[in-house]
Amino acid sequence: IIKMVPKVVFVLGGPGAGKGTQCQNIVKEYGFVHLSAGDLLRDERSKPGSEYGELIEEYIREGKIVPVEITCSLLERAMQQSDKDKFLIDGFPRNQDNLDGWNNRVASKIQLLFVLYFECPYDVSMNRCLGRGAAGSGRSDDNIESLHKRHHTYVNETKPIIDYYKGLNLIRQIDATQPIEKVFEDVKTVFEDLRS
Ligand code: UP5
Ligand code: MG
Questions:
Q1: What is the pTM of this model?
Q2: What is the predicted ipTM?
Q3: What DSSP string describes 70-125?
Q4: Which ligand is nearest to the CA of 71?
Q5: 159-174 pLDDT, tens per residue?
Q6: Of 20, 161, 169, 174, which is least surrounded by CB within 10 A?
Q7: Cα separation of 1 and 161, whole Å?
Q8: Where along the sequence do coiled-coil regions lie (predicted)?
């Protein structure tokens, strides 16, 4: 049996940039499997008796990035358990530790197609996350204190990773401030290139 090399698109951008929203659209249109690192961590946290539950909750509330061993294991497991071979990895890699862990463990086993980058200024991100919190997201990090910390981490730790992929010519940048439908139009132009 010839096993296909899994194809991966990383999806990056600040808190509330619309990564999850657009990933849902991409899944419908292009048949990718959506793996949100944040969702996988939140699920792991909520498992009864989870070894890392408290650690994960603490990191998320503080807007800090969970050690890569944990995140990478969750991502690898999810990829292995899927019978599909095209993955959107949403919200990862977001710092140097994430990047090193991925490059050491996984990178050689997959094909990285590109990195979709949703560019969104802080005030827009902030308002979206606060709106989501007010609408009952239940996320322990959709509050002003956590949002400041998430933004700080994004600027200091994630932006350099985006710059790293820019240097490799892998960044596909999208203006995430537009309405959802308009953002998706731009996303589609990026994915249509895959068909040709
Ligand atoms: N919305 C979306 N698009 C819109 C648009 N174009 N116009 C108007 N509104 C729009 O959207 C957020 C809100 O905005 C929603 O209400 C949506 O309707 C609206 P969403 O699609 O959820 O945005 P997203 O970018 O996914 O925002 P999210 O809050 O999920 O991003 P984060 O990157 O902050 O969160 P994530 O879940 O990835 O990570 C959370 C935490 O987990 C991190 O802070 C970190 O502590 C931890 N983590 C790790 O440690 N390691 C990892 O690898 C990943 C996460
Ligand atoms: Mg998300």
A1: 0.97
A2: 0.99
A3: HHHHHHHHHHHH-S--EEEEET---SHHHHHHHHHHTGGGSEEEEEEEEE--HHHH
A4: 1
A5: 999 999 999 999 999 9
A6: 169
A7: 36
A8: none
Give burial (CB, 10 Å; 0-12/13-18/19+) of 144.
exposed
Which residue ranges make up each domain of the chain? 7-189
Condensed to tens digits (0 to 9), the pLDDT of residues 21-45 reads: 999 999 999 999 999 999 999 999 9
| Helix and strand numbers, DSSP H then E, in the chain | 9, 5
CATH architecture assignment, domain 7-189: 3-Layer(aba) Sandwich (3.40)
Residue 2 Cα to ligand 1 middle (Å): 36
Ligand 1 atom closest to the CA of 65, numbered from 1: 50
3-state helix, strand, coil in the chain (%, to 5): 55, 15, 30
| Strands of the 171-175 sheet, one edge to the other | 33-36, 86-90, 7-13, 111-119, 171-175
Ligand 1 centroid – CA 148 distance (Å) = 14
